[in-house]
Design a protein that fits this description.
CATH class of the largest domain: Alpha Beta
Radius of gyration: 21 Å
Helix content: 40-55%
Shape: globular
CATH topology of the largest domain: TIM Barrel
CATH architecture of the largest domain: Alpha-Beta Barrel
Number of domains: 2
Strand content: 5-15%
CATH superfamily of the largest domain: Aldolase class I
Number of strands: 8
Strand order of the largest sheet: 1-2-3-4-5-6-7-8
Length: 368
């Protein structure tokens, strides 16, 4: 922290021992009516930027959606294998064998492990809307995970709308999934219903279910932005025991989007929860913006055009300069090249910005 700042954020609480990140940009991030689907070349560039940021896993797509997705997922998986990228692959699947089989086939053809992320509705609202019974969900869970494990896939079991589901249903679903061989479970705040208190409460509850089943299963948190609480909910979930956190570049995704990965990264670095070189952060956001047709607002935190500019007087500007310096030491990269004072060079070291103006980014393009 900057010597001129007293940090009231300090806490004696122990830092989490495990903090993993899962990037949903190339799958859940593209599920929006205002997102243009990137070309395969654009997806490959995004994948390399995910890898440069040290994000541990990336969702490559949902192969069960059809041959076009299978083709892109396999190309992305081959890029990981051929270029020896550090990022590990996973794929989404409905909790049915028909969706899981193409993941197993891609994994076998490419020769790398691909985590299978099977999702299923859990709340009474989802069950009512889909006409499901709990017995049907339990049977699908057991059959699908059993098939995936038999195919040599590691399984993460995702319950959609977890934060509006009742404890008895969640206990039944997760217990069945763990007995069937799931190595991770994912709590999904599908419609952004949770508050930080609620996020922590459901994580602690699922942790107790895992403990009752013998332990050894990791917890993921997947948040959405409907109440604009996605980042703080994700941090609350981490503190409560989640070990892998999901996000998407510039928060793209269904409705108002997923947890913004870049903001999650910056907060985790500033909190001391992770150490990471974020020099590719702006390029990551700019590339996804251009590829998807989703513009970055000027006042967007960290990477927006106005994030480190001010129209206020010199005294107020000095406060902003100190804040930029704090972020600079956390991210060790380049910031606003327009600063003119040599004593502010440290403030220029936040993120690499392209030379072109941000207002040249394309506007939203609706998908056909």
């Amino acid at each position: 922290m900057h010597p001129l700042i007293h940090d009231w954020n300090k806490t004696d609480a122990p830092r989490p021992t495990t903090v993993l990140l899962d990037d949903e940009t190339l799958r859940d991030g593209l599920q929006s009516p205002s997102v243009r689907c990137p070309t395969i070349d654009e997806k490959l560039r995004i994948l390399h930027l995910i890898d440069r940021l040290g994000i541990e896993t990336a969702d490559l797509g949902l192969p069960g959606a059809g041959p076009h997705v299978v083709r892109d997922v396999e190309r992305l998986a081959r890029e990981i294998a051929d270029q020896r990228l550090r990022v590990e692959a996973n794929c989404a699947a409905r909790t049915v064998i028909a969706d899981i089989r193409p993941i197993a086939e891609i994994s076998q053809r490419v020769g790398i492990a691909i985590e299978c992320c099977t999702f299923i509705g859990s709340s009474p609202l989802r069950q009512y809307a889909e006409g499901w019974t709990l017995e049907q969900l339990l049977k699908l869970t057991e059959q699908a995970i059993g098939f995936a494990v038999a195919e040599g896939l590691s399984v993460m079991y995702v319950t959609e709308d977890t934060t509006r589901a009742d404890p008895d249903t969640l206990r039944a679903l997760y217990s069945t999934a763990i007995r069937a061989g799931a190595k991770r479970v994912c709590i999904a705040d599908t419609v952004g219903h949770a508050t930080p208190y609620g996020a922590a409460a459901v994580v602690r509850f699922i942790a107790s279910v895992i403990e009752d089943c013998g332990g050894g299963v990791g917890i993921d948190w997947h948040g959405h932005r409907d109440r604009d609480l996605a980042v703080v909910n994700t941090l609350a979930a981490l503190e409560a025991g989640a070990t892998r956190l999901h996000g998407a570049a510039i928060g793209i995704g269904e409705r108002v989007g997923n947890t913004p990965m870049e903001l999650l990264l910056v907060n985790l670095v500033l909190m001391g929860a992770i150490e990471r070189d974020l020099s590719a952060l702006c390029e990551y956001c700019e590339t996804v913006s251009a590829a998807t047709g989703v513009p970055i607002p000027p006042n967007y935190p960290v990477v927006g055009r106005d994030a480190f500019r001010t129209a206020a007087d010199r005294r107020r500007a000095n406060v902003g300069e100190v804040e930029r310096g704090v972020l600079a030491r956390a991210t060790r990269s380049r910031c606003d090249r327009r600063a003119r004072r040599p004593d502010l060079l440290e403030s220029q070291d936040l993120i690499r910005r392209p030379d072109r103006r941000r207002d040249s980014c394309p506007h939203q393009v609706l998908r056909d």
